[in-house]
Write a structure and sequence with these properties.
Oligomer: single chain
Largest sheet: 8 strands, mixed
Strand order of the largest sheet: 12-13-16-17-11-18-10-19
Structural class: alpha/beta
Number of strands: 19
Radius of gyration: 22 Å
Length: 492
């Protein structure tokens, strides 16, 4: 069997002022044809898992286009159209295929299309006709009725941090093979809940979501169930269909799929209040850190998480650490190409005057004027060794470490989410030796940092990825919706 596969991926934060152009994709991850095989083989990614299992299942792979831009603001319409046309042209040229696997995110928004994945899946359907389309989606997908209508099967990530990407790729290959060979006849049921959740509450390493996950696995273990997905949604996209949704796929039994999806969706709705959050202020976090000698203590600044569209140059925590004369802290990372270049010009071992961060918008803080000692200059390349994306090369661009006021600041050319401890180790910082580590990450860091952290504190700062859902001015989101509207009612 011949299976075509590829990706046009983006997690769009419609509140972000960082534009997403065609260069955002081409300077991010951009592979065509056999380049995809080379880039993803032997990596713990969706595509890596699919490639590995395809070999074992005897699939002939037809790689098309695989591109993903760092999460940011709305995608330029022309950029999306260019990528979509390229993808479809490659698909048409493939010919004599038996199915299509789409490795998508599920929360891409363009200037004209709220549901870009639904639009792409529909366009692929128009090209391939009745051939099976199996789509993988991120746990933060805002799954729409159109996605569910035009894909044969949707397989979402189960975990957050996303440590099951490889497994979902393996699963997608198995499901595709079974469909093509006529071993299963998928029937998928979809439910959308009027429910938004914040990233920290979605973490499957915490008791609430770990229990939810156990129940999901119990559902999937039933012989007639092919796969089941709970998508927690991406609340930082002001679109109609943002939020939680559930999918259940059975083998040939639509009525049973509807029954299972109703039961699971009702269960999630019943426990909705358990997803409320308790955040701490930066000052409270510093106080807690000062009251212990154990290390390291992690301050998670999800509001400036570049993995969800944050500018990654916020300075509120940096400024507060300096004002409170906190020493022995590391900030990972602040994306500031201008300061990086000035530090490189000064050279290792020298001092440099900088205005650090705060160059995107005032919401995340103003530039901080300081004199820093240049400790390290790096090309910013490292290999992920943690559970997420293991084996893939991370690229921070030109990177420097400066020390100012007893604080080490990792300055990067690119916006990157520092969820892998190799971000620190690659520039000579051993995280277990540091007292306080500030990470611009909401949840993903937990996969690699939980085993070494003495304490993890989720810090409340303003930003376009703030866990405080009441801080956003929604216009397109369907209402009423919980928790913004506490009297929201829903039933199957």
């Amino acid at each position: 069997m011949r299976i075509a596969f590829g990706c046009i991926g983006h997690e769009t934060n419609t509140f972000s002022s960082v534009p997403t152009s065609i260069n955002s994709f081409k300077k991010g991850s951009y592979y065509v044809g056999e380049e995809i095989i080379s880039a993803f083989s032997h990596t713990s990614t969706i595509t890596g898992g699919f490639i590995e299992n395809a070999k074992k299942l005897g699939m002939e792979l037809v790689p098309l286009l695989w591109t993903f831009a760092t999460p940011s603001g709305m995608v330029d319409q022309n950029a999306y159209q260019i990528l979509k046309n390229e993808f479809l042209n490659l698909l048409r040229d493939a010919r004599e295929i038996d199915g299509v696997l789409l490795d998508l995110h599920g929360a891409m928004v363009t200037e004209q299309i709220e549901d870009a994945e639904g639009d792409l899946i529909q366009a692929v359907r128009e090209v391939v006709g009745a051939l099976p389309i199996v789509t993988t989606l991120d746990l933060h997908a805002n799954i729409t009725p159109e996605m569910a209508e035009y894909a044969e099967v949707i397989i979402g990530f189960d975990t957050y941090p996303h440590v099951d990407c490889y497994d979902r790729g393996l699963e997608a290959a198995e499901v595709m093979s079974a469909i093509v060979q006529g071993q299963i006849h998928p029937r998928m049921a979809y439910r959308q809940l009027p429910f938004l959740t914040s990233p920290p509450a979605q973490c499957t390493m915490k008791p609430l979501m770990s229990e939810v996950l156990e129940r999901l696995y119990a559902l999937e273990a039933q012989s007639e169930v092919v796969t089941a997905t709970l998508s927690m949604g991406f609340p930082f996209a002001d679109i109609r269909h943002a939020g939680v949704s559930v999918l259940v796929t059975t083998d040939g039994d639509q009525q049973l799929a509807e029954q299972h999806v109703d039961e699971f969706a009702s269960y999630i709705w019943e426990i909705r209040q358990a997803f409320n959050l308790n955040l701490v202020s930066v000052e409270q976090a510093i106080e807690q850190a000062n009251n212990t000698k154990e290390k390291p203590i992690i301050l998670a600044e999800g509001s400036d998480n570049p993995g969800g569209g944050g500018p990654c140059d916020g300075t509120i925590i940096l400024n507060t650490l300096i004002k409170n004369q906190v020493e022995g802290a590391v900030i990972a990372v602040i994306a500031d190409p201008e300061s990086v270049d000035l530090a490189i010009q000064a050279g290792v071992g020298n001092s440099v005057d900088l205005n650090v961060g705060g160059k995107t918008d005032p919401l995340h803080g103003n530039p901080v004027s300081l004199t820093g000692y240049v400790k390290t200059i790096s090309d910013g390349n490292f290999v992920h060794k943690g559970p997420m994306g293991q084996g893939r090369t991370g690229r921070m661009g030109k990177t420097v470490v400066i020390e100012a006021n007893g604080i080490e600041i990792i300055l990067t050319e690119k916006r990157i989410q520092p969820y892998d401890a190799e971000v620190l180790r690659s520039v000579g910082i051993e995280p277990t030796d540091r007292r306080l580590i500030v990470l611009k990450s909401a949840v993903h860091f937990r996969a690699d940092y939980t085993p070494i952290a003495h304490q993890i504190l989720e810090v409340d700062t303003p930003g376009v990825h703030s866990p405080d859902l009441f801080s956003y001015d929604y216009h397109r989101l369907r209402r009423p919706i919980y928790p913004l509207d506490l009297d929201t009612a829903w039933s199957t």
